[in-house]
């Protein structure tokens, strides 16, 4: 399709049509979502489009979808261009012997001009006159003996591609500019074009819905459940840059106005010069270069520089922000005419690492940041250091808890230690961590659930854990972290020690809403439902429950009911009707021992809520 050969901002207009439904409908019911993908005509590539039509002005207006009538003089512009292509003996052929010429008709000057049979098969292929007054097919406006306007591909006497709507013999509708025989766009009444073959997606709570715009740039989604969705369209322009759009739309049963939005287009890097040692030319939105590719290293005192050429398809001003390793004092904001240069002198601090990175973020002024939500274009050049001396790598070797010794796998920055020997509720155990690496580093322990929140954090690689300093837990957790700042490295160990007890925690088994599994319910705003927590408790202790709202819901109004009974009534609110709305169920029994914080178990359940 033509979309590989255009530069355009995109507008998508969307309307949600009411789809009916009743209280008992499942999520399969919903509304129809309609829309059109539209772009600005003046941004199309001249070379690709000039062979089929001219630019339209703002006064263009015609019925979209019906070929317009034209005078012969409007398209009879090629003069003697075809005369040498057909043997003169075949001019003005009367094939059905009715006294009227059928193929290779000539004008008053004797030049071929319509119903031209180029291959001698007695069937006209070019500049076809039809039995409808002013309607012409397979018209050549470029005088190259190839049809440009009103293409009739299936020989049914009706235009299929490059249709002239207003009779000027310039294509207006279902235009194919990449020559693949498929329509790429149609002109609109407002100097724009509707785009064919563009993928449009709706992403929301019920998954992802996808469709493709038709020949007229229109699309539709059927039976979409009400709720919040992200509407997406993505493509690649002629220069290789990404063009895309994202917008949040609210699909409601009785509100059929969603609005329109514009596709954003990013600037691109087209040329990179690094120290006059490496020159790169192309199209990039995320560019990286390494001096190791040219086997060059840089010493303290050397100056390195980069020069980046950036083009914006819509000629918007671009600003670049450079820095060396994001270090304070190295930042420089550069506003230029498309060429941005930055230099940096290698310091002793730079040589503490094996490379120094010159980085840049470049964005135009349209307020969108297409690459990652923070910038349009990223640039990075990594210069290898000649004076770098690699330090000993920081690594935890072993962890000893009481009499148990645990080995850490090589090159692992995270280690989980699950101790087998339980600890009494008033017992203690010695913990020792063996570490190799730089002498200058920080090491500390942290006890999860410690009673004294203001207690000093134990420092060093050894720690005596005393169980009565923490709230009783079925499994105690002690976290150990050690890290160095230059170079930055870190290691983490999580130690789990079981409590010496026969007691067991309560467990959440499920959530029912009015007797139905929560994930199968479509709750409605304003209606009251019974929430019931399902749980098991090995000791048949007294069990308390707590219900909370989570997911996309605001934490300001998160508690449905505090610790108490495990069956409560709840009236759903308008703010609950959002994607990824969850109800959290927490349980605890009465034995005074917890699994985490102040509860035994916690589970999330996604609940569908509609207005």
UniProtKB/TrEMBL annotation:
Keyword Signal listed: yes
Presence of the UniProt keyword Signal in the record: yes
UniProt xrefs under Gene3D superfamilies: Carboxypeptidase-like, regulatory domain
Region forming the signal peptide: 1-16
PROSITE patterns, per database record: PROKAR_LIPOPROTEIN
The entry's keywords: Signal
Protein name, as recorded: SD-repeat containing protein B domain-containing protein
Organism annotation: Shewanella halifaxensis (strain HAW-EB4)
